Structures are given as C-alpha cells and as structure tokens.
C-alpha cells in the first residue's frame, strides 16, 4: 500500500533496508528506463576488471555512472575527464551502498553525433579504396638526415616539436611548411603544404620524413584532418609521413593514412629523431669493438711474421749452410774421382795381364791413353769445383745484400719500441715513449719528443 494512504506516521509499515532499496530500484526501473542523459565526464577511472566508473555532471547536479567492460570495448568513444557526452542507459540502485547510478549502454559525443557518424562513413569509404592498407606503409629511416614539419605557425604543437628536436637531435635540419590546422581553409592549406614538401624531396632528396602535427581538440576542431583529399595527398607521399594529431585518445583519418601514427606531436618528433646521446654512445661502442678487432688482427699478423722470420733465418746462417753443403759436395767429388781413377787403374792392370803378347807399340798407346785420362780427370774436377765456387759466391753476394748489418752500414738505423718490435710508423711510438736505435756500430737509447711528418723531409 502506498505511504500516502497512511495519515498517522505511526501507522506506516516498517521496511528493512534491503527491501526499501529494492522497492526504490523497481520504481526507478519502471518509471524512467531507458533514459538518455547529457553532461560532462568527471572522476573517470578504469578498474582492473575493465569496467569504467565515472561521474556525469552539469551545473545543477551529478550522477554516478558505470560502463561495463563489454560495452566499453565496443564503444568508439574513449571516456576522459572533461569530455561532454550523451549516455543511453538504465537507472538502478547499487544496493550495497544505496547509491543511485546509471548503467551505461551506449556513449555518444554530445552535440557531435552526426559529425561522428559522418566520420565513420568516411572511414569506411576510404578504407574500401585501399588508402588505409598496412602493406603500402613504409618504415621510418633509422637515421634521417632532414625533417619536414607541416603545422600552423601559432600551434603549440610546433613548439613541442621544436623543443623535442632541439633536445634530442640539434644537428638535424628541419624545414617548416606552414598551414592552417583548423577551419574551412585548413584542408586545402594542409594539402598545399604537403605538396611543397613532396616537390622539395623530388628536387633535392629532402626532407626525408614529414611530420603532420597539431594539438588536441574536439572532433569538430580536428575535422580538417578527416578531409578525403588530405587523406589521398598523404597516401601519395614519396617519403614516409608521421601523423601526430591531438592527444593519445584523438583519432583522425589522417592517422590511418600516414605511414606511422604518433599519439602526440612530441611523440612524433621522438620517433623521427634518435637521441644524439644514444647515437654517440653507440658510436663509441662500435669504435671500441673496431679497435679491439684491429688489435687482434695486428697481434695475429705479428705472430705470423715471427714464425716466418724463424723459418727464413739470418743471412749468415743461410750462408753457413750453403758453405757446409759445398764442402760436402767437394768432398764427395774428390772421393768419386779417386774411386774412378782406382777403378781405371785396376781395369788397365787386368787388361795388361790378359794380353801379355801385345806388341810394345799397342801397349804404349794404351798407356798414353790411360795417362791422358788421368790428366783430364783433375781438370774436370777443378772445373766442377770452380763452377760451384762461383755459384756460392753469387749466393753470398745476394745474401750480403739482404744482411741488415750492411743496411746499417749505409747510414740507416733500426728503431725498436719498448716491447722490442721494429717501428715502421711514427704513430706506433707515443710521445714520451722510450725507443732503442741500433746503428752499424752500437746502439742508442732515445725518447720520443715530437712526431714529424715524413713528407716534409722528402726530396
């Protein structure tokens, strides 16, 4: 029975809290649902479960709202504080706290519903043309040599980009292509600015990357970046285009057409400009690795030279080996001649014993032949020895030319470093290093005081 039928308050029924809250919730659901309400978002938070809780307020009041994860994931609008929205939902009472709340079923930007629907239609039409295909998008060069910035001269985005580039890459040249970023004239000016950047790239190869940037705003404020002709102009770019328009939650059709989308203008500058300090550190690491590789290579080659030097030996050692070989050959030749003479003598004696009746004339002729052979054999041995002696003398002369001592006697010096290695380059001995200078007779201990360019002393 309704409370108004009771005239005496003492006759009013006694409710439990839960029953009264449930009765109020039933009355709200029956009278008001579904309901649409418009206001400003405040105190927006997202729980770990994915549900979004916020307050919808205006000048006269406020209402607690709950946007469950299922609806939040399907919504095209990302809620944030200060956003004016129109909500469709159902009123209910949260029994554990007795709070009135609106269970949101749909979120729409207030006063911009038609504009957003137009955005969705344009997106679908341009996507059907293939303008948003990821296959045609190009990666950014890791180290661009120049950048182009398309934005308004009065935009805060220009200051953000300039500050970021000055901090991260002050060496990077930047070309500015001014254009309006809001209003009816903005799309045409943005297209013209991009075309100027494209012409410069075709003419001289710069800028290598173009940044299309603007600060945040409402959907109406950013509408110039949803222009179909601007989207097609971005797609025709001969170089990568980075679009950094609005805040992280703002989305325009230019973002889908660009090669890279940055959440903010500052992020766009950071993507295109590697930090100078990071590059210097990476260069220092590469330099150290290269220096270590060169040192290892030089050490390996030095060991190889040492092994070859041991195999070659000194010229005097080679000369002594050749002299021993010649003496051995001479000794073998003498013994061979002696054995040949002895065999010839035995052969003649045997022949004489077998022919006792030979006439004296024939015996005399044989004796003369034997004597002639004995005389020719020493001459042949001498000729052979003379030939080998001349060859040995030629080898000695060639080896003498290679003897380092002969080079020192002509006025040259042999300089070795503290580690005993021969110095071939002045840069091998740092200033102040002690070196040893070997002369034809004796040696000197010296210290490096100055590096002198050898080309200045050349005749």
Automatic annotation (TrEMBL):
Q: By its UniProt entry, which InterPro entries does this protein fall under? A: Exonuc_VII_L (IPR003753), Exonuc_VII_lsu_C (IPR020579), OB-fold_nuc-bd_dom (IPR025824)
Which Gene3D superfamilies would you find in this protein's record?
2.40.50.1010
The task this protein performs is described as:
Bidirectionally degrades single-stranded DNA into large acid-insoluble oligonucleotides, which are then degraded further into small acid-soluble oligonucleotides.
User: Is this entry keyworded 4Fe-4S?
Assistant: no
Q: Which GO terms describe its molecular function?
A: exodeoxyribonuclease VII activity; nucleic acid binding
**Its Gene Ontology biological processes?**
DNA catabolic process
Q: What is its main location?
A: cytoplasm
* Assigned EC number: 3.1.11.6
**Which NCBIfam families does the entry link to?**
xseA
Instruction: Give the UniProt family note.
Output: Belongs to the XseA family.
Q: Which HAMAP family does this chain map to?
A: Exonuc_7_L
Subunit structure of this chain's protein: Heterooligomer composed of large and small subunits.
The compartments listed are: Cytoplasm
Q: Which Gene Ontology cellular component terms are annotated?
A: cytoplasm; exodeoxyribonuclease VII complex
Q: Which parts of the sequence belong to the OB-fold nucleic acid binding domain?
A: 15-107
Catalytic reaction(s) noted = Exonucleolytic cleavage in either 5'- to 3'- or 3'- to 5'-direction to yield nucleoside 5'-phosphates
Domain Exonuclease VII large subunit C-terminal as annotated: residue spans: 131-446
This one is known as: Exodeoxyribonuclease 7 large subunit
Q: What is the lineage of its organism?
A: Bacteria, Pseudomonadati, Pseudomonadota, Betaproteobacteria, Burkholderiales
Q: Which UniProt keywords apply?
A: Cytoplasm, Exonuclease, Hydrolase, Nuclease
